[in-house]
Benzoate/toluate 1,2-dioxygenase reductase subunit
Amino acid sequence: MGYTIALQFEDGVTRIVPCNPGEPVSDAAYRAKINIPLDCRDGACGTCKCHCESGAYELGDYVEDAMTAEEAAQGFVLACQMRPTSDCVLKVPTTSAACKVEATAYQGRLSRIDRGSPTTVTFGLTLDKPLAFLPGQYVNLRVPGADAQRAYSFSSPPGATELAFLIRDVPGGLMSGYMRERAAIGDPMTFVGPYGSFYLRPPARPILMLAGGTGLAPFLSMLSWLGSHPTDQPIRLGYGVNTADDLVELPALDAFRRSLPGFSFFTVVVDGASGRERAGYVTDHLTADDLNGGDADVYVCGPPPMVEGVRRWMERTGVAPKHFYVEKFAAVHETGAR
């Protein structure tokens, strides 16, 4: 039984390659035609030094001139010596182009479209074979009939043959117009990726997820993945929107609450006349306790005003989380925090 190794490059491109038991990562990458920078191949020069964000491995043999004991303790590895003993995520300190890697292009077909919300569209793409990516990542999806593409996060888990997306219905938008007016089941669609450093790390402490509008999408992917990779860490999701019409995927969130131990969520609507239990912004309904004295990982996905609002809230609490992961996107009239 082998392992999968996610190689993350500085420009956001991710390639996932198979690695055989006992095989150095550099050899696995080379088989996949990925040229991780190498020189000596003996653990002596340090040219292939990477950082392992998650996973278990054997360091192999190396000299301190190539990597210090302190670096090894921090998770750095030499790709020519590292032998994984589980699936791993490696950050490669160079661009994909320098390693002669291109983001892969794929084609799928529209398998479902849900235009039920006045402000969002959800749709699925079916592929011939499952797609590997990290939960929370995104792709650049080409707009049919236009020479343009849009970046959308997966809302489905890795390893499925149907990919799901949740997008904002932007008035006058190219993709929105296609989805509302012309899209039909069976239409071919192409995309390139996966991309992004916003993805779920192995849960090692309480997690606070904060979503603004369609920034919920990557969290749906993460929560779906956790369904088959359970954790005993508590996870709380705050989901903020402008109006009650913007609230989507509530049945899915309720299902996660029932199936994932330790998961809870709350919704907040900016419009005080919506009749919802919580009004205002997500940060209005958080306290310093949600940061667990700093021993917490915080993930935020939403428009820039929301992200900056969360930063200001954390500054006011005087508590900094262990890790703070952010994905910003440009959208029209979406807030959710201040």
